[in-house]
Design a protein that fits this description.
Length: about 425
């Protein structure tokens, strides 16, 4: 969340920022309520002080009449204080609801506008390949090579669930190893994370655990929710902690299952693995000082590019526009891989994103750092980034690496774990085919 004092002192800036991001929040109303709340809080403190003074004076009363008079005065002060406390409770509930809906501030270089205003920053090292033969999408390729069973997944858990089979199951494990080893070389601590988290952790990270707008699966009768990303668990693991500044930045890479309701998603663009209810992801997360966060965001983006360049996949990087930023993000970059089977002639589809959330999540989760020799603490900055989301990476691999003979080349970076160069053609029949 934003610092309340900052909002009070910069109400017009905050309101303008909300409007640029397409978020409806009545900032002037918050200022009115918060100012009134602070005034009432001061009045309560004054009443408490007066009540204490009266209470102390009772024993000094000259007679019973004066003693009763002072007791009555004390009761009157306490009743007035309780009435103001009730008013504060009512005001605070409305003010806090407005405060929590305010998105983070926005990087001055982020494009202003809706989704279509996002700006392309760069392309990957691999150019989009001209196929020269009829292109199949990943669903058709999976059926041809017995890689994914959508029908069995639907029988077990409903549409949007699936079984990975044969080389697709091996590709999932290979992608995890490839991403984790890349990040470990860069000083990340490897972790596996819980698949469940309490509602307060989701709210702190910026997700809505319950209600009509949620994309989260909740466990009935428990304050537990299936996580949509390891960002939730990796960010939440430091909730309420104070970190020594010399230990920053802390860089973590977590493997987790991810669960999303994907309510309202439909259409060919969501076909197959693109929008599913469960997938595996390797997530990057960092806790930094404010001075470190922008460089860390750029490092996360460079690592995402390194991973997808290493897979031999064409992609582009977008600087996400203000109207398409999630609430916690100060700046966000998306990496979109080329997917030849998507749309009529192929389209780019999002495969990773990385965000600098500055101190927005840290304020909600109360994560601070202390500097040696200085009094007090400051909020850390938090950053997250997808190293690889297996389901969407599989789409890009299957569709870009398909060959004219129907086989699929395995990216060279993954071959040590797959044990073969190609899916769909016996090893002894392999002939060199240009990727």
């Amino acid at each position: 969340m934003l610092d309340k004092r900052f909002v009070l002192e910069n109400a017009e800036l905050v309101q303008s920022n909300c409007e640029r991001r397409g978020v409806k929040v009545d900032v002037p109303r918050f200022v009115e309520l918060e100012t009134k709340r602070r005034g009432l809080q001061q009045e309560i403190e004054d009443l408490s002080r007066q009540a204490n003074e009266v209470s102390k004076s009772i024993g000094k009363a000259k007679d019973e009449a004066e003693r009763e008079q002072r007791k009555e005065e004390g009761r009157s002060l306490r009743d007035e204080k309780d009435a103001k406390a009730s008013e504060i409770e009512r005001i605070s509930a409305e003010a806090d609801a407005l405060h929590r809906r305010m998105p983070n501030l926005t990087h001055p270089e982020s494009p202003v506008g809706g989704e279509d205003s996002s700006r392309e920053l760069r392309k990957g090292e691999i150019e989009v390949r001209r196929m020269g033969f009829p292109v199949s999408d990943h669903v058709e390729l999976a059926e041809q090579h017995d890689l994914i069973d959508f029908e069995a997944g639907a029988r077990i858990a409903g549409n949007g669930f699936y079984f990975l089979k044969n080389e697709a199951a091996m590709l999932e494990l290979a992608l995890q190893q490839y991403a984790m080893q890349t990040l470990i070389r860069e000083g990340f601590t490897p972790m596996t994370t819980p698949d469940l988290a309490r509602g307060e952790i989701l709210q702190g990270v910026g997700f809505i655990p319950r209600g009509p707008e949620t994309q989260i699966y909740s466990v009935e009768n428990f304050d537990l929710n299936l996580v949509a990303t390891a960002e939730i668990t990796l960010g939440g693991m430091m909730a309420g902690q104070v970190i020594d500044e010399e230990d920053l930045p802390i860089k973590l890479c977590g493997v987790s299952h991810c669960f999303r309701t994907e309510a309202g998603s439909a259409g060919r663009a969501s076909r197959g693995l693109y929008r599913v209810h469960q997938f595996t992801k390797v997530e990057m997360f960092a806790f930094t000082t404010p001075d470190q966060s922008e460089d860390t965001l750029n490092m996360f983006l460079d690592l995402e590019c390194e991973i997808f360049n290493g897979l031999g996949l064409p992609f582009r990087v977008l600087d996400i526009a203000t109207g398409d930023l999630g609430g916690p993000a100060y700046r966000k970059f998306d990496l979109e891989a080329w997917m030849p089977g998507r749309g009529e002639h192929g389209e780019y589809g999002e495969v990773t994103s990385t965000s600098n959330c500055t101190d927005y999540q840290a304020r909600r989760l109360d994560i601070r750092y202390k500097t040696k020799g200085e009094k007090g603490t400051n909020f850390v900055h938090t950053l997250n980034g997808t190293a690889v989301a297996i389901s969407r990476a599989l789409i890009a691999i299957l569709e870009n690496c398909q060959q004219a003979d129907g086989s699929i080349l395995v990216p060279e970076a993954l071959r040590p774990w797959i044990g073969k160069e190609r899916i769909g053609v016996p090893e002894e029949a392999d002939e060199p085919v240009e990727a």
